[in-house]
Fold this sequence. Notes:
Layout: H1 14-31, H2 36-43, E1 48-49, H3 50-56, H4 62-74, E2 78-83, E3 89-94, H5 96-99, H6 102-130
Antiparallel strand pairs: 1-3, 2-3
Amino acid sequence: xxxxxxxxxxxxxxxxxxxxxxxxxxxxxxxxxxxxxxxxxxxxxxxxxxxxxxxxxxxxxxxxxxxxxxxxxxxxxxxxxxxxxxxxxxxxxxxxxxxxxxxxxxxxxxxxxxxxxxxxxxxxxxxxxxxx
Length: 132
């Protein structure tokens, strides 16, 4: 297995950048989907039934919640447990890998809190310079 490139050792060639960026783009694209972060953050509190999740994730439709949960399950971030009773009970919870997202998501959240105003001002300057 190749050694990952760390922040202290940035990639130097396009091939190295691609090797690092492509998998990262794919994963970030999935977890940053419209509803994925809400679902992940809700499940960080513990397992939930579909109806509980729907109440926690305000504004999500049943169809979109179902689709989001399937995608997160496909990626190994969410585990779905069906209890064969009548009616069937379905619970969702983060896998170990899903719980590992807490640290990087917290870091991104903290970075956003520190830099959100700076980003907004940069966008304003850009728009003013471009006459937008």
